[in-house]
Amino acid sequence: MAESLKTMTGRASWILVFALAALACNAVPVHDVSKTFAIEVSEISESKADIKLDFLWVIDNSASMCQEQMALSRSFKSFVDNLQKYLTNLDIRVAVTTTDAIGMAGRFANDPAQQFPPACFESRVHPCLANEDCVKAYGPGWECKPYPANQMYNRNRSVNSTCIFRCGDGTDCCEEFCQEDYEAECHDKQSCLKEKCADAPNEVCTFTCRTPGSGSSNSGCLRPPDTKDCPSNLDAVLTMKELKWFKCNATVEPEQSYQANIEQGLRAAWLALDPSGPNAEQAAGFVRPDAYLVIVFVTDEDDCSIDPDFASPNYKCETDADCPKGSTCRTDVYFSKMMGQKIKLCYGAIKKDYYNVCSLLGDFKEASHHNCAYDLSCKDCLTDEDCDYGWKCQQKMKCRPSIYSLSNIASYQQPPGTPIFSLTPVPEFYSRFRSLKADPAKVLIATIVGDGIPKGPTGNPNIADKDQPSLISNACLADAKLQYCARYKELTEVVPAECKKNPAGDGCEEFSEAKNECIRECYIASKGDAQNPTVAKNSYVCESPFGKADFGARYVRLAEMFGPNGVVENLCAEQGIAPALENIAELVVKRVTKVCLPLESKHQDAIVVTKSTVVDGEVVSDLLIYGTAEEGGDYLIEFPTQECCFPDNNGNCTGTQRAIIFNDLLEPTATIEIRYEADFDSGVTAL
Hints:
- By secondary structure, the protein is an alpha+beta fold.
- Among the domains are: 20-50 and 596-685, no CATH class; 121-222, no CATH class; 311-349, no CATH class.
- The chain is 25% helix and 20% strand.
- It contains 20 helices and 27 strands.
- The strands form 9 sheets. It has a 5-stranded antiparallel sheet with strand order 1-22-21-25-2.
- Helix 15 packs across helix 17 (509-527).
- The longest helix has 21 residues, at 66-86.
């Protein structure tokens, strides 16, 4: 990336100290700058004003998230430490809401869970038909929760059966799961783990044995939430001094209700922050105009934010009372015209049958677009580019439903098209979140969701590996309609053996991307399996000791729309949630660490950026390359921002200016030098 130069000469004649978010303008009037200036990285994050960060955490409150919630709480301190390692004078505020947009409806949480339900029992995904299969895999005490042999695997080879440890009392649980309490401390070294657990159970053990029904056959090991010491009057918005209590607000009571299962994280986040919505007073007190807004989603399922203008043909009604909570009863013009009589339908609701397949549901756009899905005869087209997202140009040159190449996705749902195109479009949420800031560059999106695990070793690419499941089946590789899997299959025949063994290795980027897209596509195909819909709903895209998860396709799409302001992390990552939080902290640091340009440049080539560091007492300079990280670039110049402004003699902003953002973390001791040169293409100089 960076190109090494000789020791830097001609150091800046003066140092220009730039203001950050809370300062309205650069400290030095524009007319006083020279053609070359420098700034120490430490000065960027050590401005006199506080760097304000408002974090909204949107946490899945379904019963499958118990382990993930606890892992998030345990890793939060290191997350804050990583921020403070690079940024000083931090002013952080944190709020939590859940993905339940019907029950919680975007309100901030401050009522910590006191007890987890039996659905949180310790269990392991494993193909088993009888108890002996689990005993062989995990030892005495493990029992099988089987599926029939012909329903053991889903289309993408994800496994439906599980093994669960049956206990007599808490001592059994502590002995069985003691090592999990020390894995981080011992770094998975078996000798260390054995030593720590030689006298198990011990004071560290927190497991209990629960028997929700009668008889020990229903027992299971449960780790209670770490909320016993939580204050009873904790604020819903935590400040810097209160961040140690994050676990209290982030450990939300798991539910298994209709409202909780329809997980609408995107909608819930908007309800929490909408300045004109039902929680307007809450939003006004939380979103500070001069702060960065960071929205973090943590969930093991995809977003199912039902559009309030979607009319469900499955719900006829006379009043709102006839509709599921969160939806309204309205007269439907389309169906009334078809039936020749007034028909009322529930708007903003879908059947329970569908909320477990939200990955299949497309974007609702408008009534005409929605209605044409019922007879599958939407607008004319010549190519796929003529159709909207989620549609392709198919028979008789019409745009028809197509999610991840599954052209028959609507045909197995009755009536046809139901409830395809029922969700609020992701681009709409993109626009809404950006609208919360006068400077949209100060809105960041981070997602910790289910995604494929393309890294190896996987051995046979057609079969899920025992330790690193790729969840790509022979059925998906043989299906010509699955375009991404077809591409992955082609690459397996030509890539080096090293890439097959470790797709995350150097030079294997194209192969890794193709494999991950195939994992996603195979998952979508499995969820949409018309031949076995009952079993298919249990398909998942990844599984690890930290849980299993659906593919969070809509969350991924939102983060990708935010470009350098977005990041996608895998909930099933082998190392757990801590690395994901570290990467999110890096995203924040890189977006905050920016250099405001005091002069307009006619062309990118007119600016030369150099980074200097001291190595063994000698100044070493690197010429930074313009471009994205994917292109091998070191920095970008982003569009005008409010914090980079033209000041007048009184220090008031008269206009915005561009800023340099960096693709890598900068050493606090480094110096960034910026030199303006002639614009050779246009013949116009920068100064």
